[in-house]
Task: structure prediction
Amino acid sequence: MSAPTSRDVRANVRGARRVLLAATAIRALGLGVAVALAIVAAVALVDLVVELALPARRAARVGALLAGLAVLAHALWRGRHAASPAAVALWLEERHPELLYALVTAWELPAERGAELDRLASRVDWRATVVGRAMRAMRLPAVALAVASVALLLLPAGSRARAASPRAGDRVDRPALARPVDPLASIAVAVEPPRYTGRPVTRVDDPTTVTALAGSIVTVEGRGELPAAPTLSTGGAVALRNGDSRWAARLVAPARAALLHLRAGARERLLAIDARPDAIPTVRLVQPARDTVLRAPTGRIPLAAEASDDIGLAQSHFELIVSSGEGESFTFKTHVLGAVRGGGVRRAFASALSLDSLALKPGDILHLRAVARDANDVTGPGIGSSETRTLRVARANEYDSVAVEPAPPPAEEKSALSQRMLIMLTEALETKRPRLTRQVLTAEARRISQDQAKLRKSVGEIIFMRLSASGDEGEHAHGEGETHDEEAELLERARAAGEHDAQSLDFEGGESPVVAINRPLLEAYNAMWDAGRELDQIDLRRALPHMRRALAAIQRARQAERIYLRGRPPAAVVDLAKVRLTGKDKGDPGARAPLAALDTAAAARARRLARAVALAATPEGASAAVDSLLVLRVDVVGDAPALAAALDALADAIRRGRTAEATTAALRTRRAAAGEPQRRDSLALWSSLP
Amino acid sequence: MTDFTFATAQYDSGDWDSAPLVPANVIDSLARYTTIDVAPQGVIVPLGSDAIFRHPLLYLTGHLPVRFTEAERRNVARYVERGGLLFVDDHNHDVDGAFHRTATEELRAAVGPLAPLPNDHALYRAFFRFDDGPPTTSHELNGWGDNLVHPNLLAVQRGGRIGVLYSSKDYSSEWNYHPDSKRFMSVDNTRFAVNLVVYALTH
Result:
């Protein structure tokens, strides 16, 4: 075996340093952990005897951690010399003087390679000294750790958990020292929001009210056993589980406020569940900003909208409905534009509407709105929409007048509808003609002819009423075969009108404006006459062109007249006395007086509040008062949220027996229920002051 | 002051004034058959205003898509909760039409889904008796619109009374003529309107 060299001596010193360093670290760690565990055990012990509030336990846990770290740091500081090889060499020289500073010399003067150094270093077994020192250093922390651990293990698991990991809702974990256990003395509630919200579970100790999103899983826990399942005022199912000296009731939060009625023998307790519905998204259409009329349906219209939701948006898009047609005939097409998914709580989205791609016609109307959907897959989805913007494509005949207020159709327009119907009936009859007998065909054609004659008379009445100096003559009948001079003259004009350019309505020569305006109607009148004649002869094909000419003429008349329609139509006022065949009293129109019903509801609330507060004045009535307040709270939460919040605070204060707090809360509650006190400007009548 | 004033709802979207003669016709029937103190002329009330709460019956019609504003939607819900009767009639008489789809969607959002009203409901006995439920209209019999004779009206009920009455039968077209023309009819087709008003005033 060769003698160690100075290089070996240095390696050995390093080895000794490593052993001492490890021992120092383990000792520091052990002491720190032991101190922290001891503090936790002490907190658990105190909490077992006197219940510690959640903030105090949280502070104690932080204190335990800090104390452990402080002890660890102190122990490391004290053993810091083990980090220096020179100090380790010196420390060994102190314990083995026979080394005669051979280790120090070998460490500090590595060039010295004297055989004497090697001999001295190998003569002494200083390794046992290092190991012994390390073992002694770890003895204290081992003992401390064992003592703290045993103390902690001897405590009930619930107490350990409350001290080591305090959290809201762990009140029922605290072991009950009193027997028998009151299952309703202390409860804890956990609320698990629906999965789509992504929100964490919340826990709360001994609440009077629980706020939960509709569809959340609400778990109520307590100590002991509950003999009967709680009931929900809204009628939902409540599952009860007893076991491990605890009970747990599980229910789904309803869509509206409800009371959970807990019963254990003679003991009862109410828990208000303040269910909050998932609000539907709010959507605002930013562009286009207002309704408008388009002269030409070309180009692109930028669309922009903003949507927001209390939990999160799932999808947003623009919805477009194109309505075409007029009168009684409309067609609709629905389009979806710019659909985007997701977006968080708030998002803006945009798109562009290409009018060319829609192939719009004059008179078409675009109904545009923005729609957003939330991710609610429990009670939803909630769909919100913006205000609707209307974009209308102008008709050519309204270019000169865009300020026409809504008005009912003039009489000619109704005639146009009827004429259109007659055309349809004639076309249908012509289609069915091969399958009909001669007798049936004749009867059907003559029936249409009679209707055509009636319509012609109606048009004739309009024409002659206008052309007559007196409106009373409008009642005058103009039947077939009349030989009235004026009418003959007018019919002559009508024939002339039929030969004239149908689009022209300009006045000519000595023609009066009235005649000019009526010219299309005269043409229609004439065409109807021709159509009726052909129908009487069962020649449907020859009747149809006349009927269509009549329709076109009526349309022209309608268009010609519309530009003169301004303002609201004359209102149809019913002559009540005439209808009832009594007197001449026309009555007095007016609206009903609004009902004043809300004050009675407020008064009823105030009365219920006063009864509940009166109950609380007696020591044995406090529990009943709390229940009454909670029932009142559930009833008013929809209409008076401020009162509901005040009731919640009052019930909580009474339940916890905090008299001063309850007095203030009662004052606030009464003001919320009955309003602020009223100041009187004058003294009462019974005042003794002059 | 009169007991009853016929009110037509004016909403922002669509053609709310598509049946301007219906009010006069209904008022005429009320005067003709009942002793209700009725105003001789109807009023137009914006659906988004508090004026609607002065009227126990509100008439709403149109052809075009119905899109309520926030205020209108909120008012409709409040109106129904406070005891009003909103009578909505599809002037388009088409269950595939935009009025029907959009109006039912808006009503569902405001007050809940519509459900068929039984044909033996008190509405059909409120004044005249309609043993077969709602009277059919000439538009249904002629096969216009959706080519259907709708067997029921739809309704949203609150506390045992009708809050919203929805019709696809197009009474707006059926009743939209001047009351003076009623004398030519063998059977007055506006009698059902009297039931509506009497029901609204008594329930």
In short: The interface with chain A takes residues 1-5, 12-13, 15, 17, 20-21, 23-24, 27-28, 31-32, 37-41, 43, 50-51, 53-56, 63-65, 67, 69-70, 82, 92, 97-98, 102, 109, 144, 173, 178-179 of chain B (CB under 8 Å).
